[in-house]
Write a structure and sequence with these properties.
The chain is α/β, with parallel strands linked by helices and 338 residues long. The protein contains 13 helices and seven strands. The protein has two domains: 76 residues, Winged helix-like DNA-binding domain superfamily/Winged helix DNA-binding domain (Arc Repressor Mutant, subunit A, Orthogonal Bundle); 169 residues, 3-Layer(aba) Sandwich (Rossmann fold), CATH 3.40.50.10490. The strands form two sheets. A five-stranded parallel β-sheet has the order 2-1-3-4-5, with helices on both faces. A two-stranded antiparallel ribbon has the order 6-7. Helix 12 crosses helix 13.
Length: 338
């Protein structure tokens, strides 16, 4: 059997957990919970770490993971580790010279489309169902936290989720805010954590403290998997490939929207009722301004009220200028005669 393409090793292991023998499951736990480089040790050392025999290691990487032999497994693992620690600067350098400006639009559409399709289609149904159940359960308070850029995705999740259910909060990337959130965490909380390559230490520390407090964790991450994956209750990876020298959040947003759809479906009428109540309140602040020609009744105003003139239609009053009649004394101020 040749090396299987596509899925990363950690994802492949997770998908096989249900069918592993007890001894193979011990190998899987060591590989998933240990340092990323543990699989680069000899098969004898890995067997010692897992408390199994050498043939069990061989059977695990060939029959369960689909590699030709242990050397092929290590070669693939080494490549994944190299990609996992790739810095943004290195990503930028690899990008340079690969893109033709004339083809940017077509290439951007194709690359983003491929990444979105791959991310959504490869989601594990059980993991998605678990994430939807946790974030849709109103017995839990729902919080979201992200990193430098993924905070944008966390904010988007919160903005939509709070329209479907109560008790939703965004934890801002400020030490005081994170400390306050941690002080209140308990088993009644679920945290949506966004953590992508280069896996930020403070996000990992927050997730670890939340896990220790009994909170449940839904992790959004990249294909190489944040270290937080080891303690996550639901794991939703997304591709990061895009048309630019920067890693793309577009596939992650697609995964977020897929999850939100699953949450809305699971909540049913309760989500619709909360959405309508939320929308009715929000409309008081964000409804369109009436136009200058709209009747007061059509604009939703009381008869004695005057329609509000849109800001864009306000014409500034003419400036007052000094009219100079020449070398003599200046005339008094008059309206502009432009």
């Amino acid at each position: 059997m040749g090396e299987p393409p596509g899925l990363r090793i950690a994802e492949r292991i997770r998908q096989r957990l249900a069918v592993l023998s007890p001894s193979e499951r011990r190998v899987a736990r060591v590989l998933l919970s240990g340092p990323p480089t543990i699989g680069l040790e000899s098969s004898a050392r890995l067997a010692q770490h897992a408390g199994v025999s050498g043939p069990t290691i061989s059977r695990f990487v060939t029959h369960q993971l689909g590699f030709e032999n242990y050397a092929a497994f290590q070669r693939a693992l080494r490549e994944e580790i190299s990609a996992r620690v790739l810095s943004p600067v290195e990503v930028y350098r690899q990008y340079q010279g690969q893109q033709e400006p004339a083809n940017l639009l077509s290439q951007a559409g194709a690359r983003l489309g491929e990444s979105v399709a791959a991310s959504v289609s490869s989601l594990d149904r059980d993991e998605l169902g678990q994430a939807a159940a946790l974030l849709g359960d109103t017995r839990y308070h729902a919080l979201a936290i992200g990193g430098w850029f993924s905070q944008l995705a966390a904010g988007y999740l919160v903005s939509v989720l709070r329209e479907l259910r109560p008790g939703v909060r965004l934890v801002l990337p400020v030490p005081a805010e994170r400390a306050a959130a941690l002080a209140d965490l308990s088993r009644k909380d679920v945290i949506a954590v966004f953590d992508f390559r280069r896996y930020e230490r403070d996000t990992h520390d927050f997730a670890s403290a939340a896990h220790a407090a009994g909170a449940r964790i839904v992790l959004f991450t990249d294909p190489w998997l944040s270290p937080i994956a080891d303690i996550a209750d639901a794991l939703l990876p997304a591709e990061v490939d895009g048309p630019s020298p920067f890693e793309s959040l577009t596939p992650t947003i697609a995964v977020v929207e897929t999850l939100l759809t699953a949450v809305a479906d699971s909540l049913g009428d309760a989500a619709r009722a909360h959405f309508e109540r939320f929308g009715g309140i929000a409309d008081r602040w964000i409804r369109s301004w009436p136009t200058a020609t709209e009747p007061a009744a059509a604009a939703g105003l009381e008869p004695e009220q005057e329609p509000v003139t849109p800001l864009g239609s306000i014409v500034p009053a003419p400036r007052r200028q000094r009219r100079d009649s020449g070398p003599g004394p200046q005339q008094e101020l008059t309206d502009s005669e432009e």
